[in-house]
Design brief:
This protein is of the alpha+beta class. It is built from six helices and 13 strands.
Length: about 230
C-alpha cells in the first residue's frame, strides 16, 4: 500500500512514504485498557484523555512496525522520545481524538497533526513573518475566493504552516527554536493531487532545505504535516 484512505475506523489513514518509512493516523475510540495490552506506560500522564492520546501514539509505532521495541523508548531532556539503538527513527503527534505517527528505518522524521479553527488567524503572527505570508496568498486562494471560501482557505493554510513548523521542530528534536527565525517558507505552497508541498529552509546552525509534505482532511477539520531527511 502506498497512499490510502482507510474508511474503517479506527485506522483512519495510512501512507507508506517509502520502503523504510510509514505514516498513519489513528482515530482514538478504544478504552485505555486496549492500548495497555500492547504499550508499556512509562510516563506519568495524569489526565485520562491525555493518557489515552499518549498511549495511542505509542500503539501506532508498533502498528506500523510490529517489532518496534516500545519498552526501549527513552525521553531526552528536550522531551523528544528516542531509541538509544536508533533502530528506528520516529515522531508522534496527537490532537483531539486523533493520534499520528511516522516511523522510519533510515530517515530522521517529524510529524504533526492540528485541528483547523478560526483561532489560528489570531496567533499567525507568532509563527509567520511578513516574507512568508505572501507565499500562501496565491492562485489557489484566489481561485476559491470566488465561492467565498477564502477565509476558510487561509485558516487551512495557516494551520498547515503551523503544523509544518511543529513537524520541523520535532524532526530537529533539540528544542530552542524560534518558529519565525529558524524555519521559513522559501517558495509557494504547491497543492497537487494528494499532497501539498511546502518548501522550507531550516536555518539553526546552517541552512538546510526541507520539503515538508502536508495534507488537509476537510471532513475531520485536520491538517497533517511530515518531514524526513
Ligand atoms: C513539543 C511540541 C512540538 C509538541 O507539540 P503539540 O502540538 O503540543 O503536541 P503533539 O501532540 O503534536 O506532540 C506531542 C509529542 O511530540 C513529541 N515531542 C515532545 N517534545 C519533543 C521534542 N523536543 N522533539 C521531538 N518530539 C517531541 C512527543 O512524542 C509527544 O508525545 P508523547 O509525549 O505522547 O510521546 C510543542 O509542545 C512545542 O513545544 N512546540 C514549540 C513551541 C514553540 O516554540 N512555539 C514558538 C512559536 S509560537
Amino acid at each position: 500500500m502506498n497512499c490510502e484512505y482507510i474508511t474503517e475506523m479506527p485506522l483512519f489513514y495510512q501512507h507508506n512514504i517509502n520502503e523504510d518509512t510509514r505514516l498513519a493516523i489513528w482515530h482514538i475510540e478504544e478504552p485505555e485498557s486496549f492500548f495497555l495490552e500492547t504499550v508499556p506506560l512509562k510516563k506519568d500522564v495524569s489526565h485520562p484523555f491525555k493518557r489515552r492520546q499518549h498511549l495511542a501514539g505509542r500503539y501506532l509505532l508498533s502498528y506500523l512496525f510490529p517489532d518496534f521495541p516500545l519498552e526501549e523508548i527513552r525521553i531526552a531532556d528536550t522531551r523528544q522520545p528516542f531509541l538509544a539503538s536508533q533502530r528506528y527513527h520516529f515522531s508522534i503527534s496527537h490532537c483531539g481524538n486523533y493520534a499520528a505517527a511516522v516511523v522510519s528505518l533510515s530517515s530522521r522524521v517529524g510529524v504533526d497533526i492540528e485541528q483547523i479553527s478560526p483561532r489560528i488567524e489570531r496567533v499567525g503572527h507568532k509563527f509567520l513573518d511578513d516574507e512568508e505570508a505572501h507565499f500562501f496568498n496565491d492562485d489557489y486562494a484566489r481561485f476559491l475566493e470566488q465561492w467565498g471560501m477564502r477565509g476558510r482557505v487561509f485558516q487551512e493554510f495557516l494551520t498547515l504552516i503551523w503544523s509544518a513548523k511543529e513537524a520541523i521542530f520535532k524532526w530537529y528534536g533539540k528544542g530552542e527554536l524560534d518558529f519565525r527565525r529558524h524555519m521559513k517558507l522559501e517558495g509557494n505552497i504547491i497543492p497537487d493531487e494528494d499532497w501539498i508541498r511546502l518548501p522550507f529552509v531550516f536555518d539553526k546552525e546552517r541552512p538546510i532545505h526541507l520539503g515538508v509534505a502536508g495534507r488537509i482532511f476537510e471532513e475531520q477539520s485536520l491538517t497533517l504535516a511530515w518531514v524526513l531527511t
